[in-house]
Write a structure and sequence with these properties.
Pfam families: Aldolase. Helix content is 38%, strand content 16%. It has 209 residues and is of the alpha/beta class. The relative contact order is 0.17. Bound molecules: 3-phosphoglyceric acid.
Length: 209
């Protein structure tokens, strides 16, 4: 998975966007996703234990492709790579963040929400980007319109996508996967209800028509 030349976008139809509050939840959570057929985690840098969670998954669950999300600064990108992240995702981008992401040894999906931002990302060498926040920024109608002017760019839309709306995104030619937090509900993680997470992961196999 994610060998040289491989694309983050082609790993799984739904990339789990994960928030971890307790480092000890990281490995069982990642293993549950993998057991459900989703061996990928975008671990967001939104809690104090996020880097530790990335480190633990990289060390103890090597069958899972661990990435870091919510990267907004070059320093966070460096720290995530150092912790073992194999891909990086940002919610948005600046020219300096794009340049930094492009200089790293792991692939990145920079965040975009407008045509100008997609063009800026492409200028920096990225033809695969995140579309965030997808539902709030125009959803499938936006992506359909972008396909006619920038047909060479592929997207991972995230933000507000649900199991009900995911199939309409995944049916678009310029969408390879979607991201979502619904695979790892806070209450399931807090209760250690890994069976529920296995089931939610397994259900994503049905979403690509
Ligand atoms: C992200 O960073 O991609 C979003 O927080 C995921 O959005 P969702 O929680 O609406 O799925």
């Amino acid at each position: 998975l994610l060998g040289s030349g491989g694309s983050v976008l082609d790993l799984v139809p739904v990339v789990p966007v994960v928030v971890v509050d307790r480092a000890e939840d990281a490995v069982p959570l990642a293993r549950a996703l993998a057991a459900g057929g989703v061996p990928v985690v975008e671990l967001t840098l939104r809690t104090p234990v996020a880097l530790e969670a990335i480190r633990l998954i990289a060390a103890e669950a090597p069958e899972v492709v661990i990435g870091a999300g919510t990267i907004t600064t070059p320093a966070q990108a460096d720290a995530a790579v150092e912790a073992g992240a194999r891909f990086l995702v940002s919610p948005g981008a600046t020219p300096s963040l794009l340049a930094h992401l492009g200089s790293l040894p792991v692939p990145s999906l920079p965040g975009t929400a407008t045509v100008s931002e997609v063009i800026a990302a492409r200028e920096a060498g990225f033809t695969e980007v995140k579309f965030f926040p997808a539902e709030a920024s125009g959803g499938t109608a936006y992506l359909g319109a972008v396909a006619s002017v920038l047909p060479d760019v592929r997207f991972c839309p995230t933000g507000g996508i649900t199991p009900a709306s995911a199939p309409s995104y995944l049916a678009l030619p310029n969408v390879a996967c979607v991201g979502g937090s619904w695979l790892t509900p806070k209450d399931a993680v807090a209760a250690g209800d890994w069976d529920r997470i296995i089931a939610l992961a397994a259900a994503t196999a049905e979403l690509r028509g």
